[in-house]
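Hi R.,

As promised on Friday, here is the backbone we talked about, encoded as structure tokens. Could you run it through your design pipeline when you get a chance and send me back a sequence?
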């Protein structure tokens, strides 16, 4: 009677487990890392680079997080941030003093913040998470960051300057024009401003004025513009005694 070969049975079980783990790692241990495919920011902004992970094993002190950067111009990726029980931000290089840890391993967070983004930060950022014994799955994820110049903004001081130097003078000129239109200045024609003593109206040739009219005394200017004959006639009339109330005596 043959005895069963226990050695061969144990070997077959090990081989079976190995094949299962090789062809279907999710049945053993796996980790999945996720990041947004693209991020857009303006120059000077603070950019939050989100990175989340899910693991079949609970995060322990052996869990590590690494962030690397590859410039838009190309080249090999360079690791600039490391986390292992605590954060290790970069002390030199392009991102020195501009990286802040925002992660929480217990909640599956491995995010960081990039402070004061510049145009030189354009490129691909990679988040890598390791949580032994999870060694399979998708431990890395990539994010393409695009930083653009910030659009110019109008400040309150700029608006005040525009109002003071452009709109205010325009408003004053408009008010002046409206005032001139509503209150026109009376302009007298030359014929009304001065009338020759030769030109007389009806009734004035006899020294008689229509009733109700106010008699205007001859001024020095009127006498100055008189002809010599008119001046003699004027003085002769002045010497005559007044015949009625219609005569007016000039005072010069």
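Update: got your reply. Pasting your designed sequence below so it's all in one thread:
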């Amino acid at each position: 009677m043959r005895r069963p070969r226990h050695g061969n049975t144990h070997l077959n079980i090990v081989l079976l487990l190995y094949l299962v783990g090789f062809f279907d790692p999710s049945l053993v241990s796996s980790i999945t890392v996720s990041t947004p495919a693209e991020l857009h920011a303006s120059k000077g902004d603070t950019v939050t680079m989100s990175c989340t992970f899910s693991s079949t094993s609970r995060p322990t002190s052996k869990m590590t997080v690494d962030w690397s950067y590859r410039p838009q111009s190309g080249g090999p990726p360079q690791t600039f941030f490391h986390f292992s029980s605590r954060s290790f931000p970069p002390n030199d290089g392009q991102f020195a003093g501009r990286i802040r840890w925002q992660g929480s391993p217990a909640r599956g967070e491995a995010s960081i913040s990039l402070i004061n983004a510049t145009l030189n930060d354009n490129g691909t950022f990679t988040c890598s998470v390791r949580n032994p014994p999870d060694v399979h799955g998708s431990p890395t994820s990539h994010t393409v960051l695009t930083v653009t110049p910030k659009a110019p903004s109008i400040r309150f001081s700029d608006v005040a300057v525009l109002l003071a130097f452009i709109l205010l003078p325009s408003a004053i000129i408009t008010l002046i024009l409206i005032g001139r239109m509503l209150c026109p200045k009376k302009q007298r024609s030359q014929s009304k401003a001065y009338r020759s003593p030769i030109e007389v109206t009806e009734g004035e040739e006899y020294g008689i004025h229509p009733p109700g009219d106010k008699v205007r005394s001859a001024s020095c200017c009127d006498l100055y513009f008189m002809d010599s004959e008119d001046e003699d006639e004027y003085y002769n009339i002045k010497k005559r005694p007044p015949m009625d109330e219609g005569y007016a005596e000039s005072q010069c």
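One thing I noticed while checking it: The first strand starts at residue 31 and ends at 34.

Thanks again,
M.
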